[in-house]
Each structure stands twice: as structure tokens, then as C-alpha cells.
Write the C-alpha cells for this entry.
Amino acid sequence: MRIHHFWIPKDGNSEAEYEDACANNPQAGRFALADGATESSFAKEWAKILTKGFADEEDWGQFFQQPRSWWEWRSQMPKYWSQWLEAMRRRWQEHLQQRQSERGGTWPWFVENRIREGALATFCGLVLLPDIAKPEQSCRQCKESDRSATRHYFCLAVGDACLFQVRDDRLVFCFPVQKAVDFNNTPPLVCSQSRPPARPTAPLRWRVRRWNEGDIFLLMTDALARWFLSDYESGAQPWQEIRRRLLEPNTFGSVNPGTVSDDPLVAVSDSDSAAASQEPPTGPTPDLAENHVAQPLRHCQAATVTATESQERFRCWVAELRHQSKLCNDDVTLLVVESARSR
């Protein structure tokens, strides 16, 4: 398995002003990204807490290893999500208390008002659940194209951060936004405060679906997701452009040709260490009807994207899309999870 993480701040902003966050734990099969809302305060910190908490919290691992039917998912998932979210809100409060202590114990009055309103972010998470129980059973609710897949994954989202699943060079699933026209300036958001005058957190959306070896998952924040769907709706295959421009060595036509290194784009670790995450410097459809049991991913390799060639490719590509008015000026984050085929 290879994991590629790309990010870039809004044009005109510094890296310190980047408010997206991304985390991954390939050994546990958990991946997440969040888009902090600029109109709220401490949104970057809130986005980091959400993604790291989802990827690294052992409680999530225990939850996803429990066998359950789709109806049990439906009844248990909202409750567990609410409990976890309250824990993340306490962590956000603890972070602010530490920040407050570091600056002498007080906040300006206007900062206190913004804290009471809460930080806001969109969120999208992916959990790979290999080695299901009774793989020979078919899922009546799954599409015919999914019947050959023998593993399951769980995806959840609040807002317009999106997940796309590609199999055999075909887009087989997109979530939660289905059409480019559905993106707007007021997406559902996760709030760091649970009481008034905080903005109410939007309901969680989730799915349980099938995946197979060789499938590719792309998680991206709204600006890039909107381009992806627009390009797909026009008849193109945007995942191929992502691969050509970002994942294949020596195929990117940069501004200064000849400077691209012969080194691989991604450095792959052979270790089986636990969680790995990258961050910048400063009512569901019943897709699953049978029980499953999730086991830890085996033979999983954690790929780390360098901040040199791969990031430069991403920056140049995003700048080109912005110049062509195909991409709005916003923080952009892309997480690519490539599952390996059995040999």
C-alpha cells in the first residue's frame, strides 16, 4: 500500500495560514482529512485534532473490529460518533487553555467571543476493513460492479470534503457530494462547541462498501473535489491526470524542464510501525447487509511524500488549474491511498 499526501495553501497565503489537516494510520487502515473554515477561529487546530484523533485513537480501532450487521451500524454509529466528537471537543478546549496560559492567562474580548462560537471544519474519513467474515455471501444492496470485491471499507463525512474510489480505471463511487453543481459556500460543518451560541454540527453521513486489491482511494478537500467531478462530468478521467502529474516519475512538464530528479516520487517505508501522519510545518444507503469482522492490515507499507519534487509538482499543477479558472483559490489537500494487488 502506498499513501501520497499533497497540500498547498491558498494563493497569497503563507504555509502558516494553511487550515486543512490530514492524517493517516496505514497499519490500522484509517485515513482522514479536514478543511478548517476560515470564518471561525482556531479552525486549523480543530482540523488537526479531528484528523489525528480519527487516525490514531485506539477506541476507533476497537469499534471497527466489532462484527455487526448494517442495522447495527445504523443504530450504533451515530452514538459512537457523538461520544468521540465530545472527546475531541474537550481536547480542543485543553489546547486553547494551554495557548491561553502561554500568553499570560487572558484572551482579548473578541477572541473569547470567537471561542464561544466554536471552530468549524468539514471532515472525511476512510477505514479499510480487510478479511471479512463469510466473503462468499453477496450483498444484495451492492451494485453488480461491486460483487467481485471481497473486502469492505467504511467512509464517513460531514461537509464537502470528498472520497473517490477508482477500480480498473473506472470511478465506482464518490462520497458525499455526487455532482459538481452541489458544491456551495455553506457546506455542513463540524463545530468544536456543542452548546449555544455554537453553530450546530451537521448530521454525520456514512457508508459501508466493498473494495478490492488494486483499488485507489482519493480523499480531497472541496476545491479539488469540485474540479474532479467537473472534469469527470465532462467525459474526462481526472484520476489519470492525478496519476500522470503527481504519481508517475518524470512525466510532469514543470516550468523548468530538466530539473526533475530521477529519484522516485514516493519513499516507501518497509517498517511495520504504527500510525503515520503528515501535516504542514508551522440516514445512509444500506450498502452492506451481512456481518463482517475487520482485522489489522497485513503487509502494509507507509509511504511518505517528500517536500521537494512531489510537492513542487503539486504546486505547479494547482497553480496551472487556478490560472485556467478550473480551481477556486482555496487551501487544497489531496490524500491518495493505493492498495496493492496480490502477486
